[in-house]
Each structure stands twice: as C-alpha cells, then as structure tokens.
Amino acid sequence: MTVKTDTEAAGRRRASGTRDIKVRAEKLNLWYGDTQALFDVDLDVYAREVTALIGPSGCGKSSFLRCLNRMNDLIPSVRVEGRVTLDDEDIYDPSVDVVQLRSHVGMVFQKPNPFPKSIYENIAYAPRLHGIVNGRAALDELVESSLKRAGLWREVADRLDTPGTELSGGQQQRLCIARAIAVNPEVILMDEPASALDPLATATIEELIDELKDNYTIVIVTHNLQQAARVAGYTAFFHMGRIIEFNDTDTLFTNPREQRTEDYITGRYG
Amino acid sequence: MTVKTDTEAAGRRRASGTRDIKVRAEKLNLWYGDTQALFDVDLDVYAREVTALIGPSGCGKSSFLRCLNRMNDLIPSVRVEGRVTLDDEDIYDPSVDVVQLRSHVGMVFQKPNPFPKSIYENIAYAPRLHGIVNGRAALDELVESSLKRAGLWREVADRLDTPGTELSGGQQQRLCIARAIAVNPEVILMDEPASALDPLATATIEELIDELKDNYTIVIVTHNLQQAARVAGYTAFFHMGRIIEFNDTDTLFTNPREQRTEDYITGRYG
Amino acid sequence: QEREQIRIVGSSTVYPFASYVVEEFGATTEFPTPVIESTGSGGGLRLFCEGVGVSTPDISNASRRMKPSEFDRCQENGVEEITEAKIGSDGIVMAQSVDNEPVALTREQILLAVAAQVPQDGELVDNPYDNWNQIDSSLPDREIEILGPPTTSGTRDAFEELVMEAASESAGYPEAYSDVRADGAYVDSGENDNLIVQRIRENTDAFGIFGYSFLEENSDTIEAATIDGVEPTPESISEGEYPVARSLWFYIKKAHEGVVPGIDEYVSLFMDDLMIGSDGLLRDIGLIVLPEGERSEWQERVANRVNLQRSDLE
Amino acid sequence: MGVGETILLLLGGLIPLGYAAYYLGRRKALVATAEGIRMHSRPQQYGWYSVVSMALPAMGVAIAASLLNLLGVVTPPREIVLLMALVTAAVGLAVGLRVIRPSLRARNILDNLIRWLLLGAALISIITTIAIVLSVIFEAMRFFREVSVWEFVTGTVWSPGDSFLEAAGRGDEVTEGSSSFGSVPLFAGTFMVTAIAMAVALPIGLLSAIFMSEYASPRIRGTAKPLLEILAGIPTVVYGFFAAITVTPVVVDIASFFGLDASYSNILSPGIVMGIMIIPFISSLSDDVINSIPQSLREGAYALGTTRSETIRQVVLPAALPGVISAFLLGVSRALGETMIVVMAAGVRPNLTWNPLEDMTTVTVNIVYSLTGDQAFDSPQTLSAFALGLVLFLVTLALNLVSTILVRRFKQRYD
Amino acid sequence: MATRRLTGSVNDARLQRRYRAEQRFRIYCASAVLLALAIILTFFSNIISQGYTAFWHHEVQVTLDYNERAARIGTFALDEDLRDIASRGATRAIPLQMRNNPELAGTTETTWVPVRGEIDQYLKGGRDLEPELRRQVDALMEQGVIQSGFNTRFFTAGDSKLPELAGILSAAIGSLYVLFVTLLFAFPVGVMSAIYLEEFAPDNRFTQAIEVNINNLAAVPSIIFGLLGLAVFINFFGVPRSSAMAGGLTLGLMTLPIIIISTRAALRAVPDPIRLGAFAMGCSRWQVVRDHVLPVSLPGILTGTIIGLAQAMGETAPLIIVGMIAYIPEAPTGLFESATVLPAQIFTWAGEPEKAYVEKTAAGIIVLLAILLSLNAAAVLLRRKFERRW
Ligand SMILES: Nc1ncnc2c1ncn2[C@@H]1O[C@H](COP(=O)(O)OP(=O)(O)OP(=O)(O)O)[C@@H](O)[C@H]1O
Ligand SMILES: Nc1ncnc2c1ncn2[C@@H]1O[C@H](COP(=O)(O)OP(=O)(O)OP(=O)(O)O)[C@@H](O)[C@H]1O
Ligand SMILES: [Mg+2]
Ligand SMILES: [Mg+2]
Ligand SMILES: O=P([O-])([O-])[O-]
Questions:
Q1: Is the confidence metric ipTM above 0.85 for this complex?
Q2: Which fold has domain E168-386?
C-alpha cells in the first residue's frame, strides 16, 4: 500500500493530500436524545481509497458511518449538526432526497442481511426499483456483472433462483456487496463487514475490498486492527465520539501521534 | 507473573508442573444435539492460579467453561463425554450432587446478572439457602466480608437495601463476584466478565481478579488477548472445539508453538 | 332499497307461538320465512313505533296491550294506522311438584307471601312470614320459597299487576303495594321458564311462577295451585275465570302492507282457526285460545283492518 | 341513498377512470424520459400520482354528500352528487397531469399520502374508544338524571320495582323511591364470580406456565401448550352451556352431599367455568413473561447451587412478578366483562351474600336482560344497562391501564 | 473426605429438605397441567356424549296420498295411524305443492320422513311416551317402517320450531356472512394500523396513546362492543338490526385490536437488518414495507387474523345486543338481511323447552368447536410452516 501523504498539524486531525476528496465531514456533532455521541468530527474521505474507522466499542464509529448516507435519520431520537458533503454537495441540505442519496452511497452491514428472496432478486430489486435498467436482458446482465464484481458469480451462477438466505455467511456478505454495487453507487460504507465471518470468508472479503477500491470510495468500520492495517489506505481512530487521529494507515499504526492511539493499538483497552 | 513450567510434548496439550492441579479435564467431548462443540479436550487447571481461555468466537470456550460446574446440564440437547475432576473427584459421576458441586464452583457471567433483590439479599441469598451461616449477625458479617473482598463495600455500604439492578455495570459485576464468593467456593469460573464493561470498570475487575487468585482458583474466558496477558498465569488457546495450545501465558504469547496460535495472536483472524 | 321478508319483533311470551306461525308460513307459502326476534313487548313496540320504512318492523307482538304512551309515540313517528290483533291469552300459574298435596291459594295469601312489606295493624312492616302456615293455618307447613320471573320480564309485570296490585286493597294495605321481597324467599329465576320448571321438580318445597304453557308441557311432574278457588285450565283462563291471565296481542303496521310482500297472508294465517282456533296448532303448544265469540270478533276486526284508536287503549 | 351505496357507485366509476388516469400520467412521464429528461420519480409513480389527483377530490365530494345526508342536513340527489364527483375528478386529473414535471416528487407525495392513509387506519381504534364512551354516556346520563350517582354506586338494593305499573299503563302512579338502583349487589356478584374464577385460573395457570417453561421437555411442551390453548378458543356460549348443564348439577350434588344447600343458579359454577376459560390466558401470558426472564438470571442462581424450584420461586418468579400481576389483571378484566357464561348459568337475583352457593347476578347479566327484556326503552331499568356498561368500561379500562403500565415496566427492565 | 463433599447429601438434612421441596413443587406444577388437561378431556367428552345422538335420527316410511283433503291440510295425505308419528313438517307444504303442480292430485308417493321429535327422543332412550303411542312406535320399529339413519337434515336445514327438523345451515351461513364483513373491515384496517404503528409512527406521546388504547380495546368486554354497535351502526348509521352487516361490523371493531396486535408482532419479528438493508438501497419507507417487510410477515399476519376471526366466530354477547338472536329458519342471502350465527343458534336452542333441543345444542357446539379448532389448527400449521429462524 503506497499512498502519498503529508503529515499535518494535529489540530485539524485530517490528512490532506493530492487525492480528491469524495466525502467531507465538517464539525459533525450527533446526539441520541440528550447524549452526544459524536463531537466536532472532521474527516476527509478520499475518492477511490479505503478509509478505515477504528476505535473501542461504543466510540461512535458506526454512528459516524451512518451519517454518511443519513441512515441515522431512521432513528427518531437522532439529531445531527454540522456538514457532510458528497462531491461538495451538502447531503443534509433540506432539498436533498434521502432515497436518492442512498442510491449513491451504498452500505454493507456487520451481519450479512440478504433479502429473503432469490439471489437474482436480491441484486435485481434495487435497479428495478430505481429504474436503472430497462428490460429483462439488461437486468440479467446487470445481475451477472454485479455478482462478478463481488466475486460470487462462479459460485452461484447456476442457482440464481435459490434464496439468498441459503448461502453461507461469507457468500451472503458478498451477495450484499453485489447488491450494493448493482445500483452503481459512488461510495460504499461497510460496518464491520467481516466480523461475523470465519477467517477464510474474511480473507475473501478483504481481497474483494481491495479490488473494489479501484472503482469505489470505501469507508470501513472494523474492530480488527490487523484488518484495518491490511485493507485500508487511511485510518481514523475514534475515541469517545471524537476523532483522535487520522492518518494514512502505515503512519497511524507504526508511529501514532497520540498516546491514546498507541494505548489502543497495543491493547491497553478496548 | 513468574510461574515455573516445563514445556511438554505438544500431544498432551497440557502444561504440568509443580503446582497442584485443582480441576482436570480429560478427553472431554461435548455435543449440542448432533453437532460436536468440544473434541477431546484435556486441560489442567492449577490451584490458586488464573487460567485464561482464549480463541475465536464459537470455538468452544464457554462450552468448556460450563462443563466445569455442569452448567451445561441445563441445556437439554447437551451430551458430555469424558472426565472432569475436581480435586480428583469426577464431577460427572452419577452420585455427584450438582447443587453441591455448584456451591463449590462459582461462576460469573459476561453480562452482570444480579438478582432483582436488594444488594444485601443478592449476597445473603445463597449462604442462607445452603445454611452456611446461622443468625442475622453472622450473615451480616458474611455479606460485609464478601462485599469487601469484591472491592464493593465502600461504594454500597450505606445502601445495602437498594436493588442490585440499580448499580452501574461494573458495580453489578463486582456484586456478582461478591455473590459468588459468599458461598465460599474453591473455583470461580468467569465467562468474559469484563466484556460488557467500560475500560475503567474493566481495570477494576482485572485488579480484583488479581487479588482473588490468592484464595481461589480462577478460570476466565476472554476475547481480549491483552486482558489474558494481563491477568492470567496460564492460557489455553481454543480453536474449533480443540485446545490447540496450553502454556503459561508469557510463553504462549511470546513464543507460541503452533502456527494457528500465532496467527490468532497476531490478528490474522478472529 | 326494499325488503322481501316480513320483520316481526316483540314479546317473548308470544314468541313461541308467533315463530311457530312464521315457520308454518314459510313452509306453506311461497313467501320467504319472516324474521322474528324476541325483544320483549316493550322493546318490540319501541322498535315498531320508531317509524315507517324498511328498517322498522312490520309487526310487533305483545303480551300486554299497547300503552297509550306507546301509541302516542307511534303517532309522532308517523306510524299512524295500526291494526290490533288479539290471539288468545296466557295464564300465569303458581306451580309445585306433584309430590306435594294439592294447594289452594288466594291472591291475598300470595301477596302476603311475596310482598316485601305486609300490613300489620294498619302499618306496613317487613314481611315476617317464613312459612306458608304462618299466613294461614290451613296452608301447608312449608317454607316459603318462590321461583319467579325477574323484573325484566313481562310475566313479572303481569304477576305483580294481577295478583299483588289487585289484592293489595283487600289485604288491607294502607298505601300502595310496592315491592317483591328480596330476602331470598322470592328468587328471580331468569327468563328461561324451563329452568324454573326443572327446579321446582327438584326442590319440592318451592313454588314456581310461569306461563300456563309450561305447566301443560310438564303436567306429568308439576301441578298448579288453584287461585281464588279456580284451577288454571284452558277453559277457565280463556273464559276469564282464572284471575291471573293476560291477553296476547300483535300489532300490524298498515303502511307496510303491500310494500313488504306477504303481510296480509301472514296475518290471515295467524288469525286462522287452523292456528288460534280451539283445535288450532298453537293450542298444542300451550296457547289459551279465545272463546269462540270473541275470537271471531277479533278475526273480523283484523280482516277489516280496523284502525287502532287511542281511546281503545285507555 | 345510503353511504355505502354512494361509495360503491363511486368506486365502480372511479376504477375505469383510474386506469385512464394512470395511463395518462405514466405516459407523460415516459415521454419526458424518452426525450432524455431526468424525472425525479419513476413513470409508474407519476401514473399513481394522477390517479390520486383525480380520485381524491371525487371521493371528497362523495363523502361530504354522505355526511350531509347522514347528519340529516340535506339529502342531495344521487345524480347531482355523481355529476359533481365526475366534474371534480376531471378537474383533479387535468390539474394533476399538468403539474407532472421533472422536479415533481411524485414518489414522496405518494409516500406521504400512504402515510396519512395508514395513520387514518390507526386512528380508527381511537375513534372506537371515543365512540364506546359516547354510545354509553348519553343514556347513562339520562339514567343518572333519575337515579343519583351516589345511590347507584353505594346502594345495596337493586330493585327496579314497580315498572309493572307502567306496564299496566299506569306509569303516572309510579311512586318516588319505590324502585331502587343500588348497584352494589350486582357488582358483588361480578366480583364474586371474578374472585372464584381467578382462584381457579391463577394457581392452575401459573403453575402450568411454570411447568411448561421450566420443567417440560420440548415435546411435552409442544403438545401440552396448544392443548391448553384450546381452552381459550372455546366460545363462551359453549362454556355457558357446560356450566349450566353439567357443572351446576355436580356442584349442587356435592354441596348436598356435605349437607349444604346450593342454588341451581349458584355463582360458584359459572365462576369455576370462567376460571377454566381464563387458565390459558394466565398460563400463556405468564409463560411469555417467564420466558422473557433472561436465562442469565437463572444461570446466576444455578451457579450458586440452587435447585430448580428454588431458582423458580426465589429468583424467576420475583423477577416475573410485574408480568404475572399484569396477566392476572388482564384475567380479572376478562372475568368482569364475561357475559355468556353468567347469562346462561348464574342467577338473575341481585343478592348480596358471601355464600357462593347462593345465586347471585352480575353486571353483565343485567345489561343483557335490561336490553332484551320487556321494559320500555326509556325506562330507568333499560337505561341502567348503559350506566352499568359505563362503569364496567371504566373499571376494565383502569385495570388494563395498570396492567399495561406494569408490562411496560417489566419490558423496560428485561428487554 | 473429598468424596463426601460432592455426594454426601444423604446425611444432610437441609439438603434433604430442599430436595423434598423441589419434588413437591414439581408435582404441583405437573398436576396443574394434568388437571387442566383433564378438564379439557372432561369437557369434550361431556359435550360429545350429549351431542352425538343428534347426528342420527329416525325416519318413518310413509305413503303420501295427494287427495283432495290434503290439498287443504297436508296431514291428510298420511295414513291415519301415522299422523301422530311423522313430523308435521313433512306434510305441511303439500297444499302449496299441489297448488303449484296440479298434476299431483290423485297420485301417491312413498317416501321416508322424519318422525316427531318426542318419538325420536323415545327411540334414543331419552324419554317415555304414552303407552298406546309407544306400542305403536315399537311395532313400526319392528316392521322396519321406522328406521334410524344419519341426520343429513341437521346440516342442510335451518332452525325450526319442530326439533326434528331443526338444523344449523342458516346459522352457519349467517356466521359466514358475519365473518366476511368482519374480515373485510378488520383485516385491511388492522393491518394498515399495525403498519403505521410499527413502521411509520414516531415514538411520541400520541403514538403511545394509540398503543395503550389498542391494548385497552383488546380487553374491553365484548358486551360493551355490543352497546357500541347498537349505538353507532344501528342507531346512527341506520344499518338494519340483526343484519350480518351490523353484527359483522361490531365484531370487526372487536377483532380490530387483536389483528393489530398480532400484525405488529409479525412485523416486529421481521429482523431490522432486512429493513436497514432495504433503506440502504434507497427504498422509501413504504417501499421497504411493501417489498420486504410485508412479504416476510404475511404468514404471521394471516395467522393472527385467523385467530382473531375464530374468536369473532365464537362471540355471542355483542350479537345479542345488536339483535342477532333471532329466529331465522332460512339462510340469509344478503349482508343487510337478518341473520343469526352459530353461537347465537346454540344459545337459542339451549333455551328451548323441548328435551330434543339439548342434543341439538350439544351437536351445534360440536360443529362450532370443530370449525374453530380447525381454524386454530390452520393457524398453527401456517405458523409452523413459515416459522423462520433468523
Ligand atoms: N440507537 C441508539 N440510541 C441511543 N444511543 C445509541 C444508539 N446507537 C448507539 N448509541 C450510543 O452511541 C454511542 C456510539 O455508538 P456506536 O454504535 O456509534 O459505536 P461503535 O463505535 O460503532 O461501537 P461498536 O464497535 O460496538 O459497534 C454509544 O455510546 C452507544 O451506546
Ligand atoms: N445452546 C447451544 N445449542 C446449540 N449449539 C450451541 C449452543 N451453545 C453454543 N453452541 C455452539 O457451540 C459452539 C461453541 O460455542 P461456545 O459458546 O462455547 O463458543 P465461545 O468460544 O464461547 O464463543 P464466544 O466467544 O462467541 O462466546 C458454537 O459453534 C456454538 O454455535
Ligand atoms: Mg458499531
Ligand atoms: Mg462464549
Ligand atoms: O316478552 P314478554 O311477553 O314477557 O313481554
């Protein structure tokens, strides 16, 4: 993983560089009812890169991730302040149609959650809903290409009619990735996508992420530090709702600026 | 932590030494219905030592732990084969009285589970039931001493009447430990006792374990490798229902015999 | 919106007779079987007088005559032309198990046994009697225990009116009689007279109060006391000798005739001798038929659809 | 013309029109898309949008007309209503089609509409409650104009009295105070039957629940539980028949065996049968509650060396208590409102006694008899049905509220 | 020493006592279940033993002689000595038939007709007859002129005042109509309410109020729904009294909370990840519900609906209040016609004086229970079949 970065003033907690910024969070604060879960989070997510979010349990990684496609809107008690831009467009602007936003920012969850439909329908559902393709042939093609990109095609090509829920855990997760890809998103958010999988499946997913980053901007939450080290170009360390440190992964792991980062990485807590 | 051990043939997967063996499992196999969860597990637990069980999720740590006080009897589908001895007495012998066994082998769970009674009653309940003490004064004393040993006395001395469920998570867990201590067990089993707690409470519990080991034999399951390193004298690494490696903690962590142990410790999976 | 079926409501006493006719009507003509609902006389007349139109009944049965107030209500609501039909009568009997000696009672004696308060030395006092022979030494030595209809029943109303009210003056009540005793000697026993019959069969001390038809049905196991010396028989009731009898009626809404098909035919069938005649089918199920003359008079009145006048009711 | 008919007629007319509207709206969107214009929503959604913009105003007109008719203001002739509905439909469609343009968020509008529709459905239950109150309160008020609330609530004599005078057409002779409406004996009967029922149902139900959730093997549980639930599915009229025909004679026989005198409409047999009916309520609700006690709590107790029954009695049950109480209260409110069993098997005599072998009557029996009996509709006795209904409603309401609150507390603690 | 520690319970009085208590408690629990099961057994055997006789009856062979007198009064078509034996219902329609088919006059026809109720009861051992009649019946029985057979009439006829003719058809059809109305009202409204509450509603005071209110409604005594139906549907909306529409709507309101509650449970059983997945794909809330939540929860919703309907089907008290305890010998043919339902029919029969109606009542109960139990069984099967483990 060779990424050019300049280390910056710690105050900004943001690594800027020659890369395009795809998503930018500015002074993001988030409350669940009265308890604040995110505090002034600033983060730049670079296009066509994998950015990992790490930190102890409950530090706000998922909460932050879900700000990026406004999944938090679904929780009634949530209040968000600050700005999140996707290609310089504020996604919290009142004129933004959330449903459309989410078709640009895909998401993959911790536990694979295929729809209880056939494999084919799992992929075809959203494109059909959004009218992305017309006609059965085009749809078939899209399903095939999405499954191929997710590295699942070979395994399921001959049983597209079986329910997605009957696949193994790792296959299900790849199905979910294929499903996310099918609507042609620009950004894919992943919340601990491999933590429910066995080592082998984990490896497959990690490989897949590595391939996907050529076409998509990926933000991944993980509690497995080694995983972050393996897949991510950039890593942000969260602690108690704040970004303590953000940097390119190598630097963050080998030469953390902050004591808390170091403590966490060496297993003093978490 | 300085413990004398001789490394033994890997085949036995058991570290033997000058220490007394308090609990010994021999060729322990366990099935949930038709699926086997433990395979030929051999393990010696040394008296007045902390033994940690580590391994990826679902590898059988909890299942093994619950063999040691026959908690598995409560699950109808469970079948156990093999021997477990407590001070050379086979606890799976038909003549063994489970109720008595459990009063000798206490247990602390992942989620603090105080009874919905007052703090006092939480502690006093079992001693009274077993007739361990007679008279109110003796009971009061036992409650106090148990709470003291669990390091909770100072915090709750003036509100022994409040429900145990109203304490904070860490306090609840210490209450559960106090409750276990109160019946004067010889062995205490702990299943991820700190994983639901915040870092501060975790530290308190870890300190407590360190103190308790002077009087009790402790077996602790943890998913936090650093925690195992911090509290345990011995560590067993489980993988897919087998003990891959058992050794004193320092050796296991710094110089594992098995590739799988090393992979796990360095975060290749799990 | 129209209606094919005749709709009949009203008295639970008339209900067994009317539903018999209804069924017969359905089976022997091409008209659909009328719908009949037992709502009680009061409830029936209320529905009947609610107005004209398919949602109101065509005929209402009653175990008492329409009250002037009900008539007024009908008039107010546009039910102006009503035909009244008297079909027979119903005796109310005091019955006991045949295991007992036959008993002869007077209305005063019944009053003294049933009333909540009885006159003593010109004062009303709480009913002191527990045993029939305390009331009159000629009466048997039996605990007073009477199973009778509850306040919601028309039979109860009739009983109170025809026995209690009627006898109160001769029994020496200083003021109006008011209540049935509630100390357990009189037991309200549900609308189902059948149960009363069963119970007095088992409890030989007890008397039951119910309609004559139930007596006839069960003549093998129960018998009636004579009242004021008259034995309840179809003849004595029909002739009006037996003092505790009331007439049974139904009322026809003229405005519905010709609108709802079959009313005319139904009424004719009901009033036919085949039904209410002295060999009529209703006699078999306990109707006390009217005396010959009165019956033909009513048959004619109904056939001519003589309009009911308020003055008839006062 | 009835409300139903108008609506049916309109629906019949609107469906073909709706097809047309859908087609037009969708086509407009499709044409635009074909021209390369990026529409906000999918073409079908524009189709549905046109359907709605046509149908809503038309239905509005119909409903307004029916309401006017129903409230007796005016009865607009059917032709005029239909014509107006058609015109508004046409106007609505025209406007709807016009506003279809790329920025029109048809999907969001439809979503909103659906949301309102669903909300409307949810409101029906609130309306039902209000309607219940309204439908009893007016008659109850009329009753309370004649009978003081105080007498009604505290009086111990229920004796509607001299309605026979009215029946005899001499209603004006009705003397003040000769009839009394003290509902205590009725409520006493109701509470007696409830107490008997709960005395049967609670122990059997609770112990069964414990057996099922703690002792029974899955197989026994799998057979016994549905079997027990059969009891909940038996109609009350059947229980009534069973109580009257089978249980009562047995009770009387047993009583006379012990030298006791039992009435044939004793309150004991309906009570017992009602208890049988309530067993599955108690058992399945308690079963749920006991099952929702986290296993960890049990394990905590077992780990201390408790036996099974000690765990159940001293740890599980205390924890489950709020839930069990709420099950109990629900059972009580069932028993209070139960009608058919008492109508068929209990007495009709308002009787204030402690002896369950005597006959007593209940509130519900009185409601049924008052409304089906022979009294004139505006007689106090008939009206008393509504007053009794009102009180019954309030009592069960209070019980249900308490049990809801308890369940909530319970859930908060263990979910 | 070590051995005694884990097994020495034999001498430990305290432990002994605890184990005895354990044993006792276990016995209490088991006997509670056994008692409940015994009650069920008693109940069913009791009902069946009272009712099974109604499923067969006695018929007498008669020769109908369409003579002149019979054209006026049907009974005259019978042999004189059979007039007191054959049901009156068998001949009363003869005048009408003869009017409609004049060619019948003068012909004869041999057929089987039911015997009178009391004779049927006598032959079933339920009562005695007058000696003369008894001898006659016994003789006919011996000659084979009276025979017993399956009582199809019970299933093909409506109510009758002649017990030998009474059947449950009209009540069964009435029940069907009522259920139809109930279903048509309560199912859509209930499911929509549940969807709103579970999927759309914000968690605020108002929603909580609706929720509490629904729980309350589910426990409001059914007779109060009767008062409601009387006031709202009959008196306010002018729905005809006794009609399937009035009864169905009343029961609909009563069933509504049951359907809402079970539908909500079914919706809640759909795991959130499915919803989140769909939202993350850019579905609107309604699309999530329509395409993902409803298909998965449908079996659960149907199960709850069936159970709710079964409950409605057994309900009597509110129907008494809206006038459905009526004498309806002919099955209704429309929703606004007067109708009665099975439980109401049972109630009416239970109050009839003739002994023959006791067996009818019990037989009606058997039929009703059979229907209800199969509905419930269907619900259980449905639930089993589609039960999912997530
Ligand atoms: N729906 C919610 N309502 C209220 N508080 C919440 C909610 N979701 C999360 N929180 C709280 O917000 C904080 C941040 O949670 P978040 O899920 O973002 O952490 P995380 O870093 O993803 O943790 P994990 O590694 O356990 O997934 C935590 O304290 C959590 O308890
Ligand atoms: N009650 C049970 N019934 C059936 N299978 C079970 C049961 N409990 C555990 N298992 C299975 O047994 C295996 C071992 O489980 P166990 O809980 O012992 O693992 P663990 O190492 O404690 O995992 P974790 O770290 O997740 O607690 C797993 O595959 C699990 O799915
Ligand atoms: Mg998270
Ligand atoms: Mg575990
Ligand atoms: O119904 P009644 O005949 O008693 O008025």
A1: no
A2: MetI-like fold (1.10.3720)
